Amino acid sequence: MKAPHSKCGIRVTVSGVRIPPSPPYPLFMRLAAHVPGPLHPAVYKADRGESSMAIEWLGAARLVQPVLLGVKSLHDRIFGKAPHLNFEPGDDGVKLRVHNPRSETIIIEDVQATPSLISFSHGREIDDIARAIVSSQNIPAEDALAVVAPNEHVSLSLLTFDPFGKSPAGLILKINLRWRSATVRTFSRSTITRKISVRDIRDLQKAVDQRQPRITILG
Q1: Does residue 94 sit in the same domain as residue 197?
Q2: Under DSSP, is residue 46 helix (H, G, I), strand (E, B) or coil?
Q3: Mean pLDDT for the chain?
Q4: Domain extent at residue 142
Q5: Which positions ≥6 away from 135 have C-beta within 8 Å?
Q6: Is 90 exceeded by the pLDDT of residue 41?
Q7: In the predicted model, what is the mean pLDDT of residues 116-133?
Q8: Cα–Cα distance between 130 and 174 in angstroms, integer?
Q9: Are 201 and 160 in contact (CB under 8 A)?
Q10: How far, CA to CA in Å, does 63 sit from each of 68, 100, 190?
């Protein structure tokens, strides 16, 4: 807007015209529309006279998703809409029983334990066990773990790995179950967190052994 005149050499100035910097529009649109995807760093500098103010949008954006998921999980727990989890002895091992109290089908995406001493399988086939091992390494799976109809339940088999036998009995394992409703809508995904100790799992394993038929040899 400011340039010397071609003939007289006098600078031409258009007063009162100012072009403000562009706001981080794509970032706001992602937050408003809840579109999944990585958020790229963006720093918005607004020129105000002699000083410039830097607003770091990325830091605030990273806090939005965990807070919303936490509020959703708390809401489900208070109003009884979250799936119910219970560890129990089964006929062929320790089971994680997942009950769906909702009036709609839910999809269990994954169940992970921290530390990775155990994992969960929906079957006893080689593919099911392989999926459980991959999941224990925090590698996301392409397919869902299980689908649970309204007012139904599913039993997931608990698998232990070699380090589990040498772990202290007081060690606490954090179990995270990620699930979503079959109807796609805003906030359809949620997470349930439970804790169980190594001692509790060993006691459940003993209860499974007691349920197994005993063979008595008569001499």
Answers
A1: yes
A2: strand
A3: 74
A4: 80-211
A5: 110, 111, 112, 119, 120, 141, 145
A6: no
A7: 88
A8: 21
A9: yes
A10: 9, 29, 16
Location of structure tokens 């392409």: 142
6 within domain boundaries: no
Contact 121, 110 (CB under 8 A): no
Question: How many whole angstroms separate alpha carbon 204 and alpha carbon 94?
Answer: 6
Residue 170 and residue 162: Cα distance in Å, rounded? 17
Of 76, 99, 118, the residue at which a domain comes to its end is: 76
DSSP string, 169-196: TTPEEEEEEEEEESS--TT-EEEEEEEE
Q: What radius of gyration, in Å, describes the C-alpha atoms of the chain? A: 28
- Answer yes or no: pTM beyond 0.70: no
Domain tally, the chain: 2
Maximum mean pLDDT: which of 9-23, 31-45, 136-150, 168-182: 168-182
DSSP string, 66-133: HHHHHHHHHHHHHTT-SPEEEEEE-SSSEEEEEE--SSS-EEEEEEEEESSSEEEES-SSHHHHHHHH
* 2 sits in which H/E element: none
CA distance readout (Å), 33 to 8, 29, 138, 159, 190: 54, 6, 28, 39, 18
* Residue indicated by tokens 């600078």: 11
CA–CA dist 49, 216 (Å, integer): 92
What is the C-alpha to C-alpha distance for residues 111 and 55, in angstroms, rounded to an integer?
37
Orientation of helix 25-33 relative to helix 57-78, angle to 10°: 0
Residues 6+ apart with CB under 8 A from 60: none
